[in-house]
């Protein structure tokens, strides 16, 4: 049984703040500060460039990748870290599409994170493919024999709607297509099982539920059956089979190593490595049960106390990730008022108040405080203050 009181104690949660935005940026693990300081003092300062060998910086992307593998239903040696999520999306989709050279269609849905769609649109234009975008509930019906790649974010960033990875992957395979799953809002929040779903490629970021810090590196997974066949368009020197031979021609490394691109961000990955320590004693079934408990309680209490809000997430917890959205015509101002009163969620256009529940550190007391504050702000209309309507650059 996972001790969630212990996992909560592993994070720095500012006094007086109820934090429900871990689906955008996780809080700082206490261990990260000391781990990064030690890396800078003992490794960077003293070892200088020899740290690539002595401190193992060069192999760090695979070591950290193996730690994430357990959380997403992958095996050892199947996940590698580095670069940003958009780069990993580009690599995965380009490699998957190249494995189906006689097909032109990349299919996604309009609940996908826009950056993924931008990447796919640019790739499609460059290689003469076609990006088709349908409503989330229309994805299965849109899979046909023209499809090369199904590119889906498992949990919708705005609504929290969770796609059925297993059934959609099976449907895509029946049509002769491959799948790319974005786990940005899944990894560390729900019970992902890539191997069990028989997926082909997956990518994800680590600064949300995995708590790696702002701009923490992304990860990519490739099913072993594609490991030595996948050929991403974006090829970098760290993905070469012999990077330090400095050959002018590219020869891909075997397996997942070919998905490396540039020099890894060692300091950021050190912070992420520290953040992953807390997962060593976490059972993913317990994690999912805790997530459902928190989101169910939040929905019930908000609907009882805040009649001005409309649920924007699936009511069935089986179809929902670990976040809940509610709609309000002045959602931005309401969220700013909430934040000013110590409850941090976020806003997604045009009118969605979004609340992320991270089972490692959120509890039912957070639910109660958040709903009490939200209902008070709506009752007294304190959100309708001029300062709360001024839109900041980051929402």
Automatic annotation (TrEMBL):
Chain positions recorded as pyridoxal 5'-phosphate binding sites = 85-86, 113-116, 153, 182, 185, 207, 237, 263
Lineage top rank: taxon: Bacteria
According to its UniProt record, in which pathway does this protein act? Cofactor biosynthesis; NAD(+) biosynthesis; quinolinate from L-kynurenine: step 2/3; Amino-acid degradation; L-kynurenine degradation; L-alanine and anthranilate from L-kynurenine: step 1/1
Q: What Pfam families does the record tag this protein with?
A: KYNU_C
Describe the protein's quaternary organization and the partners it interacts with: Homodimer.
Mark the residues carrying the PTM N6-(pyridoxal phosphate)lysine: 208
For this entry, the protein name equals Kynureninase
- Cofactor(s) for this UniProt protein: pyridoxal 5'-phosphate
Q: Give me the reactions it catalyses.
A: L-kynurenine + H2O = anthranilate + L-alanine + H(+); 3-hydroxy-L-kynurenine + H2O = 3-hydroxyanthranilate + L-alanine + H(+)
Q: What is its EC number?
A: 3.7.1.3
Per the entry, what this protein does is: Catalyzes the cleavage of L-kynurenine (L-Kyn) and L-3-hydroxykynurenine (L-3OHKyn) into anthranilic acid (AA) and 3-hydroxyanthranilic acid (3-OHAA), respectively.
Is Hydrolase one of the keywords UniProt gives this record?
A: yes
Family membership, please give it: Belongs to the kynureninase family.
Single GO term (MF): kynureninase activity
The UniProt keyword set, sorted, is:
Hydrolase, Pyridine nucleotide biosynthesis, Pyridoxal phosphate
């Amino acid at each position: 049984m996972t001790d969630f009181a212990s996992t909560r104690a592993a994070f720095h949660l500012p006094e007086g703040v109820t934090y429900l935005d871990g689906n955008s940026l996780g809080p700082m693990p206490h261990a990260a500060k000391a781990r990064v300081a030690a890396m800078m003092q003992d490794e960077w300062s003293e070892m200088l460039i020899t740290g690539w060998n002595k401190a193992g910086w060069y192999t760090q992307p695979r070591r950290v990748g193996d730690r994430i593998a357990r959380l997403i239903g992958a095996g050892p040696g199947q996940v590698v870290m580095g670069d940003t999520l958009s780069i990993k999306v580009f690599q995965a989709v380009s490699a998957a599409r190249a494995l189906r050279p006689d097909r032109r269609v990349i299919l996604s849905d309009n609940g996908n994170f826009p950056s993924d769609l931008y990447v796919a649109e640019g790739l499609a234009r460059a290689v003469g493919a076609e990006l088709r975008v349908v409503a989330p509930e229309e994805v299965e019906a849109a899979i046909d024999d023209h499809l090369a790649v199904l590119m889906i974010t498992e949990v919708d960033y705005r609504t929290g709607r969770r796609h059925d990875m297993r059934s959609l992957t099976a449907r895509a395979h029946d049509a002769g297509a491959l799948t790319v799953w974005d786990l940005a809002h899944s990894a560390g929040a729900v019970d992902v099982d890539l191997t069990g779903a028989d997926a082909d490629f997956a990518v994800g970021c680590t600064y949300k539920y995995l708590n790696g810090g702002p701009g923490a590196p992304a990860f990519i997974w490739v099913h072993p059956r594609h490991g030595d066949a996948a050929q991403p368009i974006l090829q970098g020197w760290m993905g070469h089979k012999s990077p330090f031979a400095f050959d002018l021609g590219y020869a891909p490394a075997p397996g997942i190593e070919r998905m490396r691109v540039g020099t890894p961000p060692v300091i950021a990955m050190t912070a992420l490595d520290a953040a992953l320590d807390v997962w060593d004693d976490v059972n993913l079934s317990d994690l999912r049960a805790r997530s459902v408990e928190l989101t169910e309680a939040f929905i019930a209490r908000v609907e009882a106390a805040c009649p001005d809000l409309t649920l924007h997430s699936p009511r069935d917890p089986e179809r929902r990730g670990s976040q809940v959205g509610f709609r309000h015509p002045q959602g931005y101002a309401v969220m700013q008022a909430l934040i000013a009163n110590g409850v941090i969620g976020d806003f997604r256009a045009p009118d969605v108040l979004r609340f992320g529940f991270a089972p490692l550190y959120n509890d039912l007391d957070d639910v109660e405080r958040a709903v009490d504050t939200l209902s008070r702000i709506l009752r007294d209309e304190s959100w309708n203050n001029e300062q709360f309507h001024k839109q900041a650059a980051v929402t």
